[in-house]
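SEVERITY: medium
COMPONENT: batch folding queue
REPORTER: lab tech (J.R.)

DESCRIPTION
The queue accepted two submissions in a row. Attaching both inputs and their returned structure tokens so the on-call engineer can compare them side by side.

ATTACHMENT 1
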Amino acid sequence: MDAPITAHSFLNFLAYAGIGIGVLVLAALALVLITPHRELSLIREGNSAAATAFAGTLIGLALPLHSAISNSVSLIDAAIWGAVSVVVQAVAFLLARLVAPKLSQQITLNQTAAGIFSAGVSVSVGLINAAAMTP
């Protein structure tokens, strides 16, 4: 009988999880740097609009990373497609700022609607991004 988990499969899990979490953390940091407001400080202060927007950012980044890992043929392939998804998410964020130029200010002022809109953009683009990553 085959073992459900082998040392090889467990090492693959660790490698792909490491790539996924690493890209997610780096991408989140990159997006934090391009936002005019300081999400993490606002979240620490209890700003629910910032928390909602940032949660949407994380989900929007994780969705295509899931697809990149699921459809990749190697760790490098997963990392490259993960990086591509980060660029797409950053462009979506910048476009959302064009559509709603006061978005950052509204999030800073804890206007929940702005946080929900920002999260919605991130998750929507993340879903499309993930669906586009087909083998």
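ATTACHMENT 2
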Amino acid sequence: MARKKHSSVDEEAQIDMTPMLDIVFIMLIFFIVTTSFIKPSGLDYNKPEASTATTKKAANIFIGVSSTGVIKMENRQVDIERVTANVERMLAETPEAAVLIEADKLAEHGIVIKVMDNVKKAGVDKISVSAGKE
């Protein structure tokens, strides 16, 4: 049997990029889905300083209290009576959530205590108050 001669035009070898792009997009989707995003409280505040301040694992629920007494959760202003309902709603999404209260050092002590009390009423035992290191 005679061999056929190849045509004079050689085909260029090409690399198929489609499988690589599929893997890259799948990895991108995986990292986006598994990343936990931090929800800032949306308040500019000055933390009180404490010599015994420690770093805790990231909390899932942030509550901000400004120096003027404004309470913010999820970047929206919340009335103090609605803190319990909002925390209960967030607990339904993440049952093992911890709460971090970020209060300005000029915030009234009574408001911070009321917020802590309302968080306790919602059923959260893990409550931290944010402070800076001296």
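NOTES FROM REPORTER
The helical segments are 18-34, 83-93, 109-121.
No errors were logged for either attachment.
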